Amino acid sequence: MIDLTTPLGDEILSLRAGERVTLSGTVFTARDEAHLRMKEEGIPFDPRGAVIYHCGPVVTGERIVAAGPTTSARMNELTGFLIDAGVRGFIGKGGMGREIVDLLR
User: Fold this and answer.
1) Catalytic residue among 31, 35, 54, 88
2) Are 97 and 59 in contact (CB under 8 A)?
């Protein structure tokens, strides 16, 4: 088990597919609308070493009652600028396109 803490640094360069990790620290939640807004208005947090959880919240009234993963592939066209700004990881489901995988390398 490899323990990681945000913001992520060069320690992630030695990770290999299939390794188990724990992640602690601040993880930002965002989905397609938030990605679009950040692209248009700027990123409202320091993206260097950040991790973004592609989250689909369930809202009841004004309260978030669940925060499950949403399909990361929907964010393909809205992700490159985040990586360029320093975001080092994404959590979600459904995989992302080859171009995003290449950018993350």
Assistant:
1) 35
2) no
